[in-house]
Amino acid sequence: MPVAVIGQFRFPPEAVEQARPVMRRVIEATRAEAGCVEYNYAEDVLDPGLIRVSEIWDSAEQLAAHMQTPHMARWQQERAELGLSERAITVYAVSGAEPL
Description:
By secondary structure, this protein is α+β, with helices and mostly antiparallel strands. It has one domain: Alpha-Beta Plaits, CATH 3.30.70.100. It is built from three helices and four strands; from the N terminus they run βαββααβ. α1 (16-31) runs antiparallel to α3. The radius of gyration is 14 Å and the shape is globular. The model has no long low-confidence stretch (mean pLDDT 97).
């Protein structure tokens, strides 16, 4: 069953410019993984430093495998060094989808 991941995290606004290439690297590596349908980070236009997360995976197992990849281990270290805070991310089981 597909899963969707929705959430947010925050960098200090002064660290966002430095975080962009780091985020780009993890996004590109993740999008190449088996089972990754969507993987996105987006900076909130009204709240500097707030990064919105949206992901869709073919299965919870593929999401779990993603969390064990070397690029995720590197990302966890780098984001801590950049001052990541307020991480709140939730995984949802998806039973169906249709265009809005």
